[in-house]
Amino acid sequence: MSRWQKAIYEYFMVTLGVVLTALGYNWFLIPNKIAAGGVSGIATVLHHLWGFPVGITMLALNLPLFVAVTYILGPRFGLKSIYGAVLLGVLTDIFGVFTSPITGDPLLAAIYGGSLVGIGIGLTMRYRGSTGGTDLAALLVNHFTQMRVGQALLMVDTGIILIAGIVFGPELALYAFLSLFISSKAIDLVQEGTGYNKAAYIISQKPEEIAEAIMIKLERGVTALQGIGMFTKNERQVLFVIVSRQEISFIKDMVRDIDPKAFLVISDVREVLGEGFRGM
Question: Is 268 helix (H, G, I), strand (E, B) or coil?
């Protein structure tokens, strides 16, 4: 893929992510008064209080945040970030005119709205875009207070939901917290992928035999790490290998057959990139 093809593809995916996010707002969250944190949460409150257009309000709030972060912390955002934030504001208002809410049930709205928004934001972030929002405010809080960005983001979003709870009532605030939780999980899912693999660490008296069996029978690469037993002070090789979930039973049986006294640790891993797995 050429440089231009890659750029076009990334902008397409950022656009798709923004479209999904805007639909999540208009189909589920905004009409049901679910202000699940973020600039969109503030815009939702102002929309239901005084009729301000959500998209324009989001743009009006994002612009000074972009300027402040750039002025205080230096340039941190590429064109895709500005593009994503502006496009989200525009599409949110356009979809608000031409689409209708799918449900009036706040529970369904919190679940499906949070999922759709999370998938959209996750796609945007995966391709190095941004929709602006309270993550910008969190960077400023981190700069002035040394609070970690994650903590600052949680504090800002919680404050917005509590304000929405005062305006819309505590029940809708609870739905907003649920939606925020679901959207954060959906973002992680898109960012990290769904394909779980397994990492195996093997400590054995027969590392050469085990490594050879893995490389020949499974055609997986094996890395030998140098380890020292802190109790015995003996040096020992630690074999490290990544396999699929379907292959883990073979690993356990094979290690047990070669060295019944071997020590085997298996853990979950995500987003394995490289030869034999997903491309970079």
Answer: strand
